[in-house]
Specification:
Number of strands: 0
Structural class: mainly alpha
Order of helices and strands: HHHHHHHH
Mean pLDDT: 76
Strand content: under 5%
Low-confidence stretches: 152-172
Helix content: over 70%
Shape: elongated
Number of helices: 8
Largest sheet: none
Radius of gyration: 22 Å
């Protein structure tokens, strides 16, 4: 089952509260306030990376679906070529997602906040904003890990024994749709099974795209609210 993202308007609503606006207005010349803006931009960048990864993967699976629907002896070479392209794209996607994961960890380590000379209300509000951001980072970490899936083998065909051991290991651990497509294409045993897994992945990607788009819009809204508060 795919990992589902959910839009949450809480950050924007929190920024609309008078106490929050007052606290941020007092902190707008503080490094922490500027870092909050920088981190919001970093989260937007990571969201864009995830969206691009889904879009690229969807393009390749749609090509595979089209070839399998027209399957025949004359299509086998074309199918093998397209599968290799798919796995090559997966490697590129995993590389970009790994970099995004590193950037996400960097955002987590960017805090430079001191509670000295700050009243308790301001500290409470700042901590709440940090908590909200931490939840957002956790969501992104789960999304990036889900899309990345397992590492892609450079070999087009797997030794059947390795495939069997992998399937046995997966009986106790749920495999996401990306991993299921990888396994189906590597086994190259049943085109019908591969087509079914590709259809499932396409549906999963559609769900993820919708969730990420909602999250992206919410991040934009939150950043705009933050800019409005800090610029007044």
């Amino acid at each position: 089952m795919g990992y589902h993202t959910r839009s949450n308007s809480f950050p924007s609503r929190l920024l609309q509260l008078p106490l929050t606006q007052q606290a941020l207005a007092l902190e707008k010349h503080d490094n922490w306030a500027n870092e909050l803006l920088d981190r919001s931009l970093g989260l937007l960048d990571i969201c864009s990376v995830a969206k691009d990864a889904l879009l690229l993967t969807k393009e390749y699976i749609q090509n595979l679906q089209s070839i399998i629907r027209r399957r025949g002896g004359e299509e086998s070479d074309l199918l093998a070529s397209e599968v290799r392209k798919y796995f090559s794209s997966r490697k590129m996607v995993q590389k970009s997602l790994h970099k995004a994961m590193g950037n996400l960890k960097g955002i987590e380590n960017q805090y430079n906040f001191s509670a000295l000379s700050k009243d308790q209300e301001t500290i409470a509000i700042i901590n709440k904003l940090r908590d909200v951001e931490a939840v957002t980072r956790t969501v992104f970490e789960a999304i990036l890990s889900f899309i990345s899936g397992p590492k892609v083998s450079s070999s087009w065909s797997f030794i059947s024994k390795k495939l069997q051991s992998k399937r046995e290991a997966c009986e106790e651990e749920q495999v996401n749709e990306f991993a299921e497509v990888d396994a189906a294409l590597k086994s190259h045993k049943s085109l019908d099974n591969a087509q079914n897994q590709l259809n499932n992945l396409e549906t999963c990607i559609q769900d993820q795209e919708e969730g990420l788009e909602c999250l992206f819009r919410q991040l934009i809204k939150t950043r705009v609210s933050l800019l409005n508060v800090l610029n007044h």
